[in-house]
Design goal:
Elements lengths: L2 H12 L11 E7 L8 E7 L19 H6 L10 E6 L12 E4 L6 H6 L18 H7 L4 E5 L7 H19 L4 E6 L1 H11 L13 E7 L8 H4 L3 H6 L13 E6 L2 E4 L15 H5 L17 H6 L1 E2 L3 E3 L2 H6 L4 H7 L6 E7 L22 H4 L8 E7 L11 H11 L1
Parallel strand pairs: 4-5, 4-6, 6-7, 7-12, 12-13
Antiparallel strand pairs: 1-2, 2-3, 3-5, 8-9, 8-11, 10-11
Length: 412
């Protein structure tokens, strides 16, 4: 692939429209009480607001809903963007703690993997041995009324997800009678949660309802993230099936050499391309960090991947191009989390996510997010606590005993 062909793709990308879904109010479509992973019940809701922004599902099925979740989504593998699941933990209507808790998952995760059974995660739990219970059981057992979201598209658009957080908070308040809800959000979920409470929305979206008491952000990219562009060919190797990857997406590589053959998968990138928009949530977290932590020349094609161009093994449009297509980090920091919300930052400092993950190694990190980004308080009105737990990577932050104990202490 030549520089000219890369630029040709860029020209086509710029003209690609983003479409939206159908019309109507928020409705409860179905409720299920025979549920795996310890949940008491799961509801499927549909917000048919016409503004919901379409994200495409890769044809190879890597982001499809499967198993019981597919059943809950009406036996649909690729739900419409306005649909979402709300899971209820045991004790949601009887536990004594007065303020209910909503758990919001990160990219590639859902309520089961993230909060109820980390051993089921297709990207791993961050350790060689994974537990089969998580934060949901810990908080429910401690007397909290616990709920969790599952988004239709696990790397979907955060403008959509922020509105679904708003809808879930309203549902939880109605079900419990509580005036406010505590929100615990992990990784990409922290971006959507901040968007909701900061009022960062499209014209079709509803504003913040003043209904969040505490906001706990776990491994959040509070000042952005550039991992998928920073490390040259490595993220593409985890993404391209021809290189042996299949679990994630949102790579920088428009084309990647796998075992001597050049393959092109625009549909697996972070960009909006003529093929569609497949990983908008990944793009929305982007911010440059190379001025703080220089690129590592040992990462093949690091410079061309980050800045755009054709390298020895790959080609990229560059991080600035992707940021220009809609990073939300600047807007959420400018809008600000209201000082009326007690906000807590929980971060890790150990980059030891097991192979095949390419750990973030160019600066102190949890293996994915720079610690300096996670701990950055910019745009947050009231940071009540800012804690970095030693020996925890990005994935263990959601289930390790020390993390669970810290979160329970803050909620209490």
């Amino acid at each position: 692939m030549t520089v000219a062909s890369v630029l040709g793709v860029a020209a086509l990308v710029a003209a690609t429209p983003v479409t939206a879904n159908a019309t109507g109010p928020v409705t409860l479509e179905a409720s299920y009480t025979s549920v795996s992973y310890g949940w008491a019940k799961v509801e499927r809701w549909y917000d048919s607001n016409p503004g919901y922004i379409t994200a495409n599902y890769p044809a190879d099925g890597r982001l499809d809903q499967t198993g019981q979740r597919r059943t809950f989504f009406g036996n649909v593998a690729r739900p419409a963007m306005g649909r979402y699941l709300l899971s209820y933990a045991p004790g949601w209507n009887t536990n004594a703690k007065p303020t209910p808790v909503l758990l919001v998952p990160g990219a590639y995760e859902h309520a089961d993997m993230a909060w109820a059974d980390p051993s089921t995660s297709h990207i791993g739990c961050g350790a060689s041995s994974c537990p089969n219970t998580g934060l949901m059981q810990a908080l429910s057992g401690a007397g909290y009324k616990v709920f969790a979201l599952t988004f239709p598209h696990s790397a979907g658009n955060n403008y959509n997800h922020a509105q679904q957080i708003r809808n879930a908070v309203r549902t939880i308040r109605s079900a419990t009678g509580a005036p406010k809800v505590d929100v615990v959000a992990w990784s990409m979920g922290a971006v959507a949660a901040r968007m909701y409470v900061s009022g960062v929305k499209k014209p079709w979206g509803s504003p913040y309802g003043g209904d969040v008491r505490k906001l706990i952000l776990i491994g959040g990219p509070n000042n952005g993230w550039d991992w998928t562009f920073r490390h040259g060919t490595y993220p593409a190797i985890l993404t391209y099936a021809e290189c042996g990857g299949a679990a994630i997406g949102g790579t920088a590589a428009l084309a990647q050499n796998c075992y001597g053959t050049l393959y092109s998968h625009p549909e697996l990138t972070a960009y909006i391309t003529p093929a569609g928009d497949y990983f908008p949530g990944i793009r929305q977290m982007l911010r440059r960090w190379d001025a703080t932590y220089p690129l590592d020349p040992a990462d093949f094609d690091a410079y061309t991947t980050y800045n755009g161009g054709v390298g020895t093994y790959s080609s990229s449009l560059g991080i600035n191009y992707a940021i220009g297509q809609g990073s939300v980090i600047g807007p959420i920091r400018s809008a600000g989390v209201p000082a009326s919300i007690s906000t807590y930052l929980l971060c890790g400092n150990t980059a030891d996510i097991p192979y095949p993950w390419h750990n973030e190694h160019t600066g102190p990190s949890d293996g994915t997010i720079f610690t300096a980004s996670c701990t950055d308080p910019g745009g947050i009105g009231a940071v009540t606590a800012n804690t970095t737990l030693s020996n925890l990577n990005h994935l263990k932050l959601a289930w390790d005993t020390s993390a669970k104990n810290q979160i329970a202490t803050w909620l209490n």
